[in-house]
Write a structure and sequence with these properties.
The chain has helices at about 25-30, 50-55, 75-85, 105-115, 140-155, 190-200, 220-245, 250-280, 285-310, 320-335; strands spanning about 15-20, 40-45, 65, 90-95, 120-125, 170, 205-210. It is an alpha/beta fold. It folds into two domains: about 15-245, Spore Coat Polysaccharide Biosynthesis Protein SpsA, Chain A; about 250-335. The chain has a seven-stranded mixed sheet, sandwiched between helices. Helix 5 (about 140-155) runs parallel beside helix 7, helix 6 runs parallel beside helix 7 and helix 8 runs antiparallel to helix 9.
Length: about 325
């Protein structure tokens, strides 16, 4: 029997577990969740095996089940778990996969920044300690590194890495603020979550959690990530720039970016045009013509690098939860 802590001074901590094809791991995962977690929401995403029966057989009284009548994807499972958690009064919601890769012992460091009002959302990062990376396949390391850079640009969170890591925690007050229509329902969910949180200007922190690979087979292949993720991230990057720096605000980044793009495009376009003329006529372009192409391109590139530097310094620093607490205090004062 799991020993819970009903009278604990801790906030009401929930764990959400999307369940799909994890009949051999789910019981071990449930038994490993510590007692200070008062409620667990298991979302059966229409698993074709008997994963649901295996989870139910554990007999943990903390567990609430949500069942899908058809497979909807891990993103939908997490969102439905979030919804159920808020209905049951959650204050902090931790998401753990059912495949046993995520050690429940790391729930404490994962929720600590949220408890101390230092973050709105935290996520695991398997790259913070090089010794632990020996257990991670090389192809995953390379793929994660590339996707991490693209995700940094798309979200504005230049301080986070390992974007596909699904070991996360969120303060429940942020869940109603999420635009769920923009959240992906399947394997792009974690990255789309970061994109949405970046739109809200929520504070996100990485927490060291070592890689723990077993014999499970991931349905998300490296090739699928290579072809599906970059286009989505590029669209998110453009949307973020327009929203953050041209609709909500217009600052030094906006000026640097506009001039940088204009000069770079002019330099490249001018150079390609005169290269075409030289190839067609057989005449060599003059030094002046070459400089007119090269100098704007160099200057534009430098301006874009400076714009990136400004963007990196614009990472959200003050948690949304802190502002909400301040607003609650003001309301109490005005109400009294």
């Amino acid at each position: 029997m799991i020993q819970t802590m009903p009278n604990s001074p801790l906030p009401h901590i929930f764990v959400v577990i999307p369940l799909y094809k994890a009949r051999d791991q789910i019981a071990h995962v449930l038994r490993g969740i510590p007692g200070f977690v008062r409620t667990i929401v298991v979302v059966d995403d229409c698993s074709p095996d008997d994963s649901y029966e295996c989870a139910k057989a554990v007999g943990d009284e903390r567990v609430h089940f949500v069942r899908h009548h058809q497979n909807q994807g891990v993103g939908s499972a997490v969102l439905n778990g979030y919804q159920k958690s808020t209905e049951l009064g959650a204050e902090i919601v931790v998401k753990i996969d059912a495949d046993g890769q995520m050690d429940p012992a790391y729930i404490v460091p994962l929720i600590a920044p949220i408890l101390m009002d230092q973050a709105d959302y935290t996520k695991g990062n398997r790259f913070l300690h090089s010794d632990e990376l020996k257990s991670m396949p090389l192809i995953r390391r390379i793929g994660n590194a590339g996707l991490s850079f693209l995700t940094k640009a798309a979200t504005g969170y230049w301080n986070v890495f390992d974007p596909t890591n699904g070991y996360t925690a969120i303060h429940a007050s942020l869940i109603p603020m999420l635009n769920t229509a923009r959240l992906h329902r399947r394997y792009f969910f974690e990255s789309s979550m970061l994109i949405e949180l970046g739109t809200l200007r929520a504070v996100t922190r990485d927490i060291y959690i070592p890689a723990r690979y077993q014999d499970e087979v991931s349905s998300l292949t490296e090739w699928k990530s290579l072809f599906e993720f970059p286009p989505r991230l590029f669209i998110a990057f453009l949307r973020r720039l327009i929203t953050q720096y041209f609709i909500r605000d217009f600052n030094v980044f906006s000026v640097l970016f506009l001039f940088g793009i204009f000069l770079s495009i002019f330099g490249v376009g001018f150079g390609l045009y005169h290269w075409y003329l030289s190839a067609k006529t057989g005449s060599i372009a003059s030094t002046g013509t070459v400089m007119v192409a090269v100098l704007p391109f160099i200057l534009g590139s430098q301006l874009l690098i400076q714009a990136m530097s400004v963007d990196i310094q614009n990472i959200p620093q003050e948690p949304i939860r802190t502002n909400m607490k301040l607003l609650e205090e003001v309301r109490k004062i005005l109400g009294s």
